[in-house]
């Protein structure tokens, strides 16, 4: 398919039109607080934590200090298994810098086993070596953890989720 | 422009609950969502309201660059109890958010509205860069002076025009830091002398460090409702009699450096709405932006409480003290509570509500029935927002 529009060269874009450049140096360090700190510390230990709402009895992952459904405080943490179900996925061929991948990254939303009422979990990656025609919504998956010494208390302490054989 | 509600079509609007978390120089033990949740729970308890069933609309006042996330409003609902409800974000001061809520209630569209504003400056490692980023990119941002220099240019012009000394301006800071000692939400209460303030380092002349409000983290949630709701609830209402916001100009070349014209524009509108003709006699307590100490005097004059250049004498005569006839910034102001940026306006509102509902404890100004809150959006803006609140 032909690309729409007319491409400008770098020289045309940057040098043939008068413009003013600015490169802000802006950095953040978001404090993760009570519940997400608990979750990230858990990842470092190879554990996935959720939280239970004692009013509506939901178990959610990641944990939070309040239930957004009934606005009650959530004070009980629950250790969940490191397995789940693919809620949805995509084969991603374009990087953030617009360059193209030969082998796609596979972002997927994983519903963690043990969460209740409405399943919950987080977005992560699927194992790139799973044959693409085998990846399905509803596929059972299991976390593949980084070696303990390399974990930093980050969502990337899980390297990816791989297919759990039936 | 907003008009005084008249007849049966416009409803009276009250504040029925305020909750505050912070302010502290840095809140690192809670995430921003947890911080807002704690403020929200306090507000809903005071307002005797269940946010999941009784609030019609939520307004969050926050900016992408301050929060560090683009389209940051998407992350606003849960911690307010607003999941899957009507939520909007206003990238401005909390009083601007209140003005939107006021209109939504006064017109009868909604019965109950929640307004939230927060500061998470401690999540920014480069706050000066973000402030610098607000300057005009073609002209002003090319120079490396900090944003405080813009305020210094303004202080210089104000002092030159009206003959106000550094000593007098230092007294604003002394009063407000001292007032903050009695305010549990204030981060920077302290006893300082005029000499202490004048001894602090010059940041950009004539502005010294001690005259500049330090950053603080915190969140404020305000619940607003119409008269029908007020009657059904066990609450002490504070009525909104006038509310307005205005911007003078973004251009540093054409703005009025001396007189804070944006405050005059706000006063023109809100005073008409609240039927205020003589603010000094009709208003009992003032909460006025003092992000830079001279701003307290400049704003009071621009609001018409004094003629230009005459606020200084009232200050040195002690009239702005808690026991004076025109108490100004009994909360400690932005200097004393801490610069909460978009939450500064709601800091002013929180103090007036505490005063007008008899919950100000040892800070209480006896007989206060009507209060004025004025907030400024800070450098480099010429944007302000004003609310007039009344116990009756």
Radius of gyration of chain B, in Å, reads: 19 Å
Given this structure, which CATH class of the domain at 13-125 and 218-232 in chain B is correct? Alpha Beta
List the strand order in the largest sheet of chain B.
3-2-4-7-1-8-11-10-9
Helix fraction of chain A, binned, reads 10-25%
Percent of residues of chain B in helical segments? 25-40%
Q: Any idea what the shape of chain A is?
A: extended
Q: Taking strands numbered 1, 2, ... along the chain, how are they ordered across the largest sheet of chain A?
A: 8-7-4-9-10
Strand content of chain A: 25-35%
Strand percentage of chain B: 15-25%
Largest interface: A-B, 22 and 33 residues
Query: In whole angstroms, how far apart are the ends of chain A?
Result: 41 Å
Instruction: Count up the helices of chain B.
Output: 15
Structural Rg of chain A = 21 Å
Which architecture name of the domain at 13-125 and 218-232 in chain B does CATH use? 3-Layer(aba) Sandwich
Main pleated-sheet profile of chain B: 9 strands, mixed
Oligomer: heterodimer
What is the CATH homology-level superfamily of the domain at 13-125 and 218-232 in chain B? Answer: Thiolase/Chalcone synthase
Mean pLDDT of chain A equals 94
- Helix/strand order of chain B: EHHEHEHEHHHHEEEHEHHEHHHHEE
């Amino acid at each position: 398919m032909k690309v729409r529009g007319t491409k400008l060269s770098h020289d045309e874009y940057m040098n043939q039109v008068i413009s003013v450049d600015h490169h802000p140096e802006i950095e953040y360090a978001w404090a993760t607080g009570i519940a997400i700190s608990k979750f990230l510390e858990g990842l470092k230990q190879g554990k996935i934590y959720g939280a239970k709402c004692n009013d509506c009895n939901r178990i959610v992952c990641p944990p939070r200090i309040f239930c957004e459904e009934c606005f009650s405080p959530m004070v009980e943490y629950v250790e969940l298994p490191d397995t789940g179900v693919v809620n949805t996925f995509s084969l991603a061929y374009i990087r953030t810098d617009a360059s193209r991948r030969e082998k796609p990254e596979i972002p997927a939303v994983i519903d963690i086993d043990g969460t209740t009422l409405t399943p919950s979990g987080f977005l992560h990656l699927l194992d790139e070596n799973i044959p693409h025609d085998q990846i399905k919504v509803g596929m059972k998956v299991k976390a593949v953890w980084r070696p303990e010494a390399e974990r930093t208390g980050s969502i990337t302490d899980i390297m990816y989720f791989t297919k759990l054989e039936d | 422009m907003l008009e005084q509600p008249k007849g049966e079509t416009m409803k009276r609007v009250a504040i029925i609950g305020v909750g505050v978390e912070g302010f502290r120089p840095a809140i690192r033990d809670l995430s921003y969502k947890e911080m807002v949740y704690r403020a929200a729970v306090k507000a809903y308890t005071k307002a005797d309201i269940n946010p999941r069933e009784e609030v019609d609309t939520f307004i969050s006042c926050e900016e992408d660059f301050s929060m560090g996330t683009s389209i940051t409003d998407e992350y606003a609902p849960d911690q307010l109890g607003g999941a899957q409800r009507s939520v909007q974000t206003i990238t401005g001061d909390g009083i601007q958010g209140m003005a939107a809520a006021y209109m939504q209630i006064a017109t009868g569209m909604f019965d109950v509205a929640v307004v939230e504003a927060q500061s998470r400056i401690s999540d920014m490692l480069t706050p000066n860069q973000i402030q610098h980023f607000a300057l005009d990119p073609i002209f002003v941002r090319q120079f490396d002076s900090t944003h405080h220099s813009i305020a210094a240019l303004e202080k210089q012009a104000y002092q030159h025009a009206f003959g106000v000394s550094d000593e007098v301006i230092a007294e604003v800071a002394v009063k407000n830091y001292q007032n903050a000692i009695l305010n549990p939400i204030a981060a920077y209460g302290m006893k300082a002398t005029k000499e202490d303030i004048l001894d602090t380092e010059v940041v950009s002349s004539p502005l010294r460090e001690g005259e500049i409000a330090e950053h603080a983290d915190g969140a404020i949630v305000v619940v607003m409702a119409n008269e029908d709701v007020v009657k059904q609830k066990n609450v002490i209402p504070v009525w909104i009699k006038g509310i307005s916001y205005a911007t003078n100009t973004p251009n540093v070349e054409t703005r009025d450096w001396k007189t804070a014209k944006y405050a005059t524009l706000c006063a023109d509108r809100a005073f008409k709405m609240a039927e205020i003709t003589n603010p000094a006699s009709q208003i009992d307590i003032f909460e006025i932006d003092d992000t830079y100490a001279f701003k307290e005097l400049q704003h009071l004059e621009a609001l018409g409480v004094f003629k230009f250049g005459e606020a200084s004498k009232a200050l040195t005569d002690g009239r702005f003290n808690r026991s004076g006839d025109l108490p100004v910034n009994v909360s400690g102001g932005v200097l004393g509570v801490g610069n909460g940026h978009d939450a500064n306006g709601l800091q002013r509102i929180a103090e007036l509500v505490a005063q007008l509902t008899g919950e100000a404890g040892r800070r209480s100004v006896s007989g206060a029935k009507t209060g004025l809150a004025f907030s400024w959006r800070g450098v480099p803006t010429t944007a302000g927002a004003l609310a007039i609140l009344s116990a009756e």
